[in-house]
Write a structure and sequence with these properties.
single chain; alpha+beta; 3-stranded antiparallel sheet; 75 residues; globular
């Protein structure tokens, strides 16, 4: 599923845009998005440390990506 309607990308911007997480450059991973509802969606490597409840998932991202998302939110 590649549809991203309603999502604002907070991380993984090009280096010249004041972003860039350094993990994947301008490619598509890992990233943090804000939804129209104000919630966050995290894209990263699937974490297999334990099995979450049905309907939930776990992803693993570098700390730098979350810091970039907080910066983008002005926090």
């Amino acid at each position: 599923m590649s549809e991203r309607a309603g999502l604002t990308r907070l991380t993984g911007k090009a280096e010249g845009d004041g972003g860039g997480n350094g993990e994947c450059g301008q490619s598509d991973c890992p990233n943090v998005y804000r939804t129209e509802k104000g919630t966050l969606v995290v894209q990263g490597d699937v974490f297999k440390g334990f099995t979450p409840p049905e309907g939930e998932g776990l992803v693993e991202i570098p700390e730098s990506v979350l810091r970039e998302a907080f910066y983008a939110l002005g926090r």
